[in-house]
Recover the amino acids of this structure.
């Protein structure tokens, strides 16, 4: 339990930040999941969804929610996934 006034304030700030960070991470996970789902769906919109997902990852890095290397790894993976989905199937 926080004893000083400053420690109490920090506890309140931490709760507020944790809630905000959780919403950012959740939205990010949903965006990545939706892109992957669209990539395996015939006629999916994965290439069109890619800029939004990459932008969300960059935004999360700027906010300090996700490490930049983690974001780079995810961007690489979703880019490859979207590129595979955009390529027509070989006959």
């Amino acid at each position: 339990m926080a004893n000083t006034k400053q420690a109490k304030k920090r506890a309140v700030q931490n709760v507020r930040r944790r809630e905000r960070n959780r919403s950012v991470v959740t939205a990010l996970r949903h965006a990545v999941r939706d892109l992957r789902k669209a990539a395996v769906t015939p006629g999916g919109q994965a290439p069109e969804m890619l800029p939004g997902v990459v932008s969300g990852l960059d935004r999360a890095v700027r906010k300090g929610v996700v490490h930049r290397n983690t974001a780079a790894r995810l961007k690489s993976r979703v880019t490859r996934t979207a590129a595979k989905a955009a390529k027509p199937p070989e006959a």
